[in-house]
Amino acid sequence: MTLHVVGGVYREYCVHPRWNAIFGSGGRAALAIATLDTPVVLHSYMNDEALQAMNEQGAWLQSFQARPTPVPHIVGFTYLHDMSVPQISMVPPRPLPPIKVIEDKIVRFGMLEGDAVVHAEWAVYDPQNEQASEPFRANGSSADHLALVLNNFEAGRMAGMVGAHPSVTAPALALQQNAEVVVVKMGPEGAFVWTAQGTDQVSAYRTNRVWKLGSGDCFVAHFANAWMHEGKSPRDATEIASRATSYYCETQGFPSVDILANHSFLPLQLSLDYRKGIRRQIYLAGPFFDLAQVWMVEQARNDLREMGLQVFSPYHDVGLGSAGDVVVQDLQAIKQCDLVLAITDGLDAGTVYEVGYARALNKPVVVYSERHKGESLKMMEGSGCTLCENYTTALYTALWEAVTL
Amino acid sequence: MSGRNGGGGGGGGGVPDIQPSCDALKFSILVSSPQPAAVAALKIGDVLDVDVAQLGAQMVVRVLQNGTLVGGLAGPDATRLRNCIEEGHDYQAKVLSVTSGQVRVEVTHV
């Protein structure tokens, strides 16, 4: 039975790491599903360029079809890096007329340029809008069997309970939207699965590299395929989605059936302390002598805090000053923190000293360095630091260290 | 897309305004629909052939190693590449990484 995906096809550009693609939630999910050899039809607003991009990729997959609703322009997302808030361009001033789809099995994503009114026997819905998520049935859509897939923040907003645990928000959302499954993505804690029969927690998986753009689309695609096409239970479908997403984050590619069956996945084992609610503090080491360095420290601090970590940043928490003013406070903070993230491009002497000091205290250290390799980082590598060449990977590696301590 | 802060307008800062000439076209890209048997034989640094071929109703860009299909290239950079190949330019793809069945290549003019 064919899966029908309705969602955005958007231009995506990331400055660093460079990424120049046309996917969007709908496009990415449809291609991810087609890579599993499941027949899939993509319904979306597309101009000629977008349709061309979809068909160029779909041509390699026997099971892909695109049904465009023609538009003159597609929406564009531009990211500075893959954890940044995007600039969004070419959103029509008024919403486009909705796309209507009546099929047995539908994956529906929220869209920026319009909406999708769907009628299905089975449906999976990802509203794709943290600020103003619209309930599935609010635009007249219907489904006999509905699963909602949301992140934790979206679930809280949509349920009117920001900050509440999914064990509270998920049943409220199920009642509000007449859904039989609610899956809430929880970052390092994996995903919470609610059904009327009970709840489950599915693990997140560690990877050696993290590419974040589109990971949520991949999750929805694999959940939908497993639940609606393969008939897996909501828990098992979520497990498959979590694994497939980790593969996508590691490689930027869509896993095939063979890869999903044979790839080695490493579950993230949360520590007992983390499960008890103890939150670790991270020391953010890095130079801040010019705008570029201050920008980097500011960015890393904001992103780490957004990931739920407590951050001690010498720039923010001690400030500028002479050796007598700041050094004792900085070193005291390293002693009190649980781990260190060190920004080492430029090999600033103070940062290198902080790394050594932390390792002498047996604190885990994640080193983020894009430009230096080999000899320059030998002492760090040899003393047990975890070396990362990529910003997002470094932050996630630090997060995973923190939740497993 | 993450959907984070979805909605709103804004410019497209960061996207280059000027496309490089066909002679200067150079980019790295993930190979789409990688063929497992061909990928298994790849090593970092291998230089692959790049051509344009008909696949069903679609013209696609392919990467090949000694005539064996490795996969396709798609997206805005690949569309530009296809246009340049159709104008008579030649390109090669150097393997930058092979990770769990996925291949990243750097495309350069020859």
Using the CA coordinates, give the radius of gyration of chain B: 16 Å
- Going by helix content, strand content and strand pairing, the class of chain B is mainly beta
Low-confidence stretches of chain A: none
- Please give the count of helices of chain B: 2
The ordered string of helix (H) and strand (E) elements of chain B is EHEEEHEE
- Characterize the quaternary organization of these chains: heterodimer
Shape, per Cα inertia axes of chain A:
globular
Largest interface: A-B, 63 and 40 residues
Specify the structural class of chain A.
Answer: alpha/beta
Average pLDDT of chain A, to the nearest integer? 96
* Mean model confidence by pLDDT of chain B: 88
Head-to-tail CA distance between termini of chain A: 45 Å
Choose one word for the global shape of chain B: globular
What does this structure look like?
The complex is a heterodimer of chains A (405) and B (110). By secondary structure, chain A is α/β, with parallel strands linked by helices. In chain A, 37% of the residues lie in helices and 26% in strands. Chain A is built from 14 helices and 20 strands. In chain A, the strands form four sheets. Chain A has a nine-stranded mixed β-sheet, sandwiched between helices. In chain A, strands 17-16-18-19-20 form a five-stranded parallel β-sheet, with helices on both faces. In chain A, α1 crosses α5. The mean pLDDT of chain A is 96. Chain B is mostly beta strands and 110 residues long. Chain B is 15% helix and 40% strand. Chain B has a six-stranded antiparallel β-sheet. The radius of gyration of chain B is 16 Å and the shape is globular. Chain B starts with 26 loop residues before the first strand and ends with a strand. The N terminus of chain B is likely disordered. Classes of the chains: A alpha/beta (405), B mainly beta (110). The interface between A and B is large, with 63 and 40 residues.
